[in-house]
């Protein structure tokens, strides 16, 4: 397999990039956008410049890489992702060469630049993949422990299966939306504390879940599993993911079959898929797994990633407050284990499937990844910098999540997923 040439920390680009940008030439994420010309296409990004990959292909800049015609002139990345890891890597390496400050080929061709390059303000980002299946795990031990303490038994917060199985459920893929698509407060049934019958109405416990999701490549045929040690070949990249949750609806409905309408009204994701290759320099060891797992879940080496995460809450017309700072490295179960478990029964996966981590809470209260935990089930309101208090999300609040890696040498980021919660639709 080709080397990770695109990760060379010494490389800089002839496209300007600020020090604080999430998108240096070492990132080269993949996304889908529409520009003034009304053509939907796939692209990458350096600094605040968006690069049309279909135009680069037409102009011959990917010659020598085995790519189908028009693989980039698509309204999603699924066909490209299905080509597999060697192709993802070859394209990223070619982009790194092409935009290297010492390469004059495109740098000196303003005619081609005018065709292929856009400023971020000139484009609208769209869903980068068609998600045929969405799975949500529950892999943060801090989150699972907090929820168990609140809703079950503080002395036995984790259920007996939790350290043996990367617990998950099948979510709703049709309602996954991109950053900037606002969502209405969901309506549903909830059982008020002490009441003897449920009521119907807008959720009164609207919550976010700070998560990340990985996007899979094309899997194996139905019946065949992906082993933990080969999982990296089947994971394309990651996004920041807000798995919205209506806690009152969820609490009433979830026994015995799990989450349903409390979750399916919407999930939000950041628009740029950062490849696992780009994240390679930020690998770290995960937490100690103190219960021996079955052999199919055993992994060795560094399988977690040091990805800094934050959640900002912005009331309508006011300034925002960062209410949580967490990190993806806290995850108890890693992606290899999640994918190995997901497929161990022979379940197939497709290019573009979305697998979310579960709420990523850290060990301290300021690192909790949901309002449920930050306000401890509504008992301890949090105070924003504006003086406003919150237990859950109110109408017209905006929730913005950001993720980035920074090892003191190169910063690689995901941008943000930002969503306003609109009032429930009256009908
Ligand atoms: Mn979730």
Could you list some keywords that capture this structure?
five-stranded antiparallel sheet; eight-stranded mixed sheet; SH3 type barrels; single chain; about 425 residues; 10 helices; 2 domains; Fumarylacetoacetate hydrolase, domain 2; about 15% helix; alpha+beta; binds manganese (II) ion
CATH class of the largest domain: Alpha Beta
Question: How helix-rich are the residues, as a percent range?
Answer: 10-25%
CATH topology term of the largest domain? Fumarylacetoacetate hydrolase, domain 2
Total individual domains:
2
User: Regions with pLDDT < 50 over 5+ consecutive residues?
Assistant: none
DSSP strand count: 26
Give the name of the CATH architecture of the largest domain.
Answer: Alpha-Beta Complex
Q: Quickly count the helices.
A: 10
Strand proportion, as a percent range, falls in 25-35%
- The chain-level mean pLDDT equals 97
Bound molecules: manganese (II) ion
CATH superfamily of the largest domain: Fumarylacetoacetase-like, C-terminal domain
Q: Which structural class matches the secondary elements? A: alpha+beta
Work out the radius of gyration. 22 Å
Give a quick account of the main beta sheet: strands, pairing sense, barrel closure: 8 strands, mixed
- The coarse silhouette is globular
- Gap between N and C termini: 56 Å
């Amino acid at each position: 397999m080709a080397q990770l040439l695109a990760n060379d920390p010494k490389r800089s680009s002839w496209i300007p990039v600020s020090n604080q940008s999430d998108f240096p030439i070492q990132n080269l994420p993949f996304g889908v956008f529409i520009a003034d010309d009304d053509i939907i296409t796939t692209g990458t990004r350096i600094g605040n410049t968006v690069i049309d990959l279909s135009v680069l292909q037409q102009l011959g800049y990917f010659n020598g890489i085995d790519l189908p015609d028009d693989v980039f002139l698509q309204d999603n990345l699924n066909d490209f992702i299905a080509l597999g890891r060697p192709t993802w890597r070859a394209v990223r390496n070619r982009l790194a060469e092409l935009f290297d400050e010492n390469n004059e080929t495109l740098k000196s061709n303003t005619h081609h630049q005018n065709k292929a390059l856009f400023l971020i303000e000139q484009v609208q980002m769209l869903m980068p993949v068609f998600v045929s299946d969405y799975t949500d795990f529950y892999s943060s031990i801090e989150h699972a422990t907090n929820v168990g303490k609140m809703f079950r038994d503080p002395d036995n917060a984790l259920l007996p299966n939790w350290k043996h199985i990367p617990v998950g459920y099948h979510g709703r893929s049709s309602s996954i939306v991109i950053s900037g698509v606002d969502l209405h407060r969901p309506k549903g049934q909830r059982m008020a504390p002490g009441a003897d019958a449920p009521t119907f109405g807008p959720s009164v416990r609207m919550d976010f879940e700070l998560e990340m999701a990985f996007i899979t490549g094309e899997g194996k045929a139905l019946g065949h599993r992906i082993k933990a040690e080969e999982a990296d070949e089947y994971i394309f990249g990651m996004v920041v993911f807000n798995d919205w949750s209506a806690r009152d609806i969820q609490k009433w409905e979830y026994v015995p079959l799990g989450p349903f309408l409390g979750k399916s009204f919407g999930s939000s994701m950041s628009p740029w898929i950062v490849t696992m290759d780009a994240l390679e320099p930020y690998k770290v060891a995960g937490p100690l797994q103190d219960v021996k797992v079955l052999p199919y879940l055993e992994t060795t080496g560094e399988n977690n990633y040091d990805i800094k995460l934050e959640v900002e809450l912005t009331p309508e017309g006011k300034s925002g407050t960062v209410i949580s700072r967490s990190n993806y490295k806290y995850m108890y179960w890693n992606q290899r284990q999640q994918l190995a478990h997901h497929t161990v029964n022979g379940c197939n996966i497709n290019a573009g499937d979305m697998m979310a981590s579960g709420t990523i809470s850290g060990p301290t209260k300021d690192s909790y990844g949901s309002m449920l935990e930050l306000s401890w089930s509504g008992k301890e309101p949090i105070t924003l910098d504006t003086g406003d208090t919150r237990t859950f999300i109110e109408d017209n609040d905006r929730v913005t999540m950001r993720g980035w890696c920074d090892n003191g040498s190169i910063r690689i980021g995901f941008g943000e997923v930002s969503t306003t919660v609109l009032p429930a639709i009256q009908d």
